[in-house]
Structure formats: C-alpha cells, structure tokens
Amino acid sequence: MRVKGIGLKRSIFSGQLGPELDGREEVLFGWVMSVRDQGGIKFIIISDKDGIAQITVKKGEVGKRVWERAKRIREHSCIGVRGIVRKTEKAPRGAEIVPKELRVYSVPKKLPPFPLFGSSLPKLDKRLDIRAVDLRRPKAQAIFKIRGSALRAIRDYLNEEGFLEVNTPKIIASATEGGAALFPLLYYDKEAFLTQSPQLYKEQLVMAFERVFEIAPAFRAEPSKTLSHLSEFLSVDVECAFVDMNGAMEILEGLIGYVVHRVREECKEQFKLLGFEPEVPSGMKRITYDEAVELARRHGVDVDWGEDLSSMALDAIASELKGYYFITGWPEAIKPFYIKPRKDGRSESFDLMYGDLEIASGGERIASKRELMRRIRDKGLNPKSFEYHLKVFDYGMPPHSGWGLGFDRFMMVLTGQKNVREVTLFPRDQFRLTP
RNA sequence: GCCCUGGUAGUAUAGUCCGGUCUAGUAUGCGGGCCUGUCACGCCUGUGACCCGGGUUCAAAUCCCGGCCAGGGCGCCA
Length: 435
Prior knowledge:
Elements: E1 25-37, E2 41-47, E3 52-58, H1 64-72, E4 78-87, E5 95-106, H2 124-129, H3 131-134, H4 138-160, E6 164-165, E7 171-172, E8 184-187, E9 190-194, H5 199-209, E10 211-219, E11 232-241, H6 245-266, H7 268-274, E12 285-288, H8 289-298, H9 311-318, E13 324-328, E14 349-354, E15 357-364, H10 369-378, H11 387-390, E16 400-406, H12 407-415
Parallel strand pairs: 3-5, 6-10, 12-13
Antiparallel strand pairs: 1-2, 1-4, 2-3, 4-5, 7-9, 8-9, 10-11, 11-16, 13-14, 14-15, 15-16
Helix pairs in contact: 4-6, 4-7, 8-9
The chain binds one RNA strand through residues 34, 36-43, 45, 54, 56, 58-61, 88, 90-92, 110-115, 117-126, 179-181, 196-197, 218, 220, 222-230, 233, 235, 308, 310-312, 351, 358-361, 404, 406, 409.
C-alpha cells in the first residue's frame, strides 16, 4: 500500500498524553516499540521524541480498515495514528489511544540484530554499525538526552560567569603542543593538520575578551586502544585572564557541580531508566603529584618521579581516592611548553580525575614571550613555527589560566558508562571511520 | 604498536580442557496456530548456527598452523 503524503497533522507528542485529554481526538506519530497481540485485542506501543504511548486496538471497537492495518504492524514500523484518548490506569501515562485512523509509513524490511528492551545486547561494535537504529533503544536515548542537558548546563554556567563562547579554527598549520600525533591533511597545495586543542587560540583570545570558552571537537591520531580514548572527541575549553591555577580549578569545580545538579534535576526519568545516579561532588580533594607518587608506591607500584602516572599507578591512587579529585603540581618536563613552571621542576598545573579516569587538565600559562620562547626551545620545538602565536605576546598579554575538559569522558562519569563509545553518537577510533 | 583471550542459529550463550554419545543444548527472536487488558503478556508448534583456509586423525565445533574479525590489558595519549 502506498501512502501519498503524510495525511495527518500531529496534535500532541507522547509526553502530552494523559488522562486529562480523555475523550479528545489527537494525532500522534512514532515508531513501534512492541506489539502485544492478544487475539481480539492488540497493544501497540509507539515511541516518539518524548517517550512511549499505547495504542489499543480492540476488535469490534475499531473499524475494519484499522483492524486489518494493525495486523501488518510490527516492531520498528513507522506509523501515524488519529484516535480518541481514553483514560485508563492500565496504560502507561494513564491514557491510551483508540485509533480511528492508522497510517503505516514504513514497515522494516529486516529487524535489527538487537532487542529494543531486554538485557542481552549484542556487542557494541555490531550496534555501532547501524547506530541510528541502536539509538532508538530507550537506554541509548537516555544517554543522549543527558548529554544534551549537560551541554546546555555548561553553556548556561559559563555564560553566567561572564565567559564568551568562541569558535577557533580546526584546520591548523602546525602542531600546538608537540606530543600527541596529528592528522595531516592536504590544504590546497599545503600540508595542514586537524587541531588537537584550541589552546593557543584561546590564549590569544583572552587578550581581547578576557574570559572565553569553546565547545568543539579535537583530534588525536594516537593509536590508543582503550575504553576512554577516541580519535575525535568533544573538548570543553576555558581560558581566563587575571586568574591563577587555583582560580581555574575553582571555575572547573563550580562547573562540574552545577552540571551534575542540573542533569540530576532535568533527567530524572533518564537516570531511572539507566539505573544510575551521578555522584554529587562535594569539596573536591586536591593532592599533589608528589603525594600521588607516594600513594602509588605505598600500593607497591613502581613510579619514577617525573614520569607520567601509568594506569597501574592511577588504579592504586583511585583505590583510595573515590570520586572527583585534583592532582596538582605536575613535573614541568611532562607538561606542554605553555604551562608555567615553578622553580623546583614542578609546574602550575592540575588534572581533574574521577577515580582512575582523567577528565580535565589545565593550569596557569606562561604570559611572558621570552619565557615562552625559551620553553619552546627547551622542548625541542622550533619557535619559528609558533611565530604567528608569539608575536601577539608583545602587546600586553595578561596573566591567565585555563583548562580543557574531555566532555565525552565527563559523560562517562555522568551516565555510569564504561566505554566512551556509548556516550558518543558516531565514535571515531583507530579502527572505526564509519558510520 | 606489543601481549592475552575469544569467534557456535537474527541475538545472547552451553558444549571445546580430556576428539566419537552433538542428529550441537538453552533463552530470546523469527514463521504458523490459539488467546478481548497486555505492559519482557501467555500457551502450542515450526525454523535456524560450529568465522575462513590449510594440517593431524579412522573420526575435528573440539587438537595444530595461517588469515580475518572482535573483546580486554599494556604502551602512546587526554
């Protein structure tokens, strides 16, 4: 059967359905989540952007056409329904739709290799192959509704704190920090790269705007094969003039607290569905790098002072420090050139951790051009390739600090997911470039 | 990039150590039938699988080698 056009006009979303609409005629669209066929009565559960609604098709109560059409409907069909709302405690939302007209827009050719409800999910890799369909799962929907809510909360908080949202180029001429591998690309007749961080741009922008933030993708060509690494990830970057390392940490701590509060408020249903409640941070602990090294050693993990903390070391530390905490004062040798060093070989830097997961990293930046040039040379980089950056330091660069938050990792913490790919719509890693 | 583990119906798994009784078990899905208040509906019934290639053996889902794919750990990295 071919349907010409949509033929119906939506009057409500499922979220508006309720007993108070009893007796009214309404039009709903959605995807069929389940059909419970009991012979003379069929219960069709459809899902739209708000959630689910029940359509009750009772033989004798509905017209012949509707009855015949209802027989063709199965899971994942895309349908529209015009019918009378009937108040009943036996239906979800306390009301159901008794259809007068049923339009079937699309019946699936095949069923996806996983159930919409139920516990036995196929492997993530299989689901990612048809991600858009996987995203119809209520639990997947919950995750991305929380994600949207968290992004809104971040923007609200930072705007409220006087930060200006900015956008910086993602195609760049040279590496920002050394270290991480970049994705090269052909830019007309020149070589260029995808940016690994907006670091240098946001530093330049504090000269003009004082407080800036950016929410944008960052790209790393590291062949990391873990549950918390992606080749493309969303980074929340903040940079603030006239603030030191502690000021930057306060902003970050304030933001995290606000976001957790907001998503818990806005996404009660979603968390219930996930069976998870994000931890409300209270007074984030701060330990120094030296203390972290000590702690790991006490657990029998070999750590050379000056080395980055291995996952074994972080495991040991996380076994004592639950939830959010800062590790401060990292050795300057393992931090990027723009981080302000101290006289003792350490630096004005911090990482925000959640258990053994690093979710943000920041510190005070070098504001003096001479010092910055020296550090670039010390790190074995060529000051010439940073000329475009260094020259603005001649014109009154304020002291400034900032941080970058790995938003996808933060989402893991907010939703209780173990694999970062679960909180990313279309994840990119070493082995996945589609969909 | 290195190391470890795994690959059985559409999906999730049992069986593999110790080769034969596996005509490969179970759950769910799917097809057919019954069911007028379900909500992971229920009942009856049917359907469907040993990753690919080579080797050992009378005999391979099971042992060996190679490939491909997946999961995990390490490293790199945030």
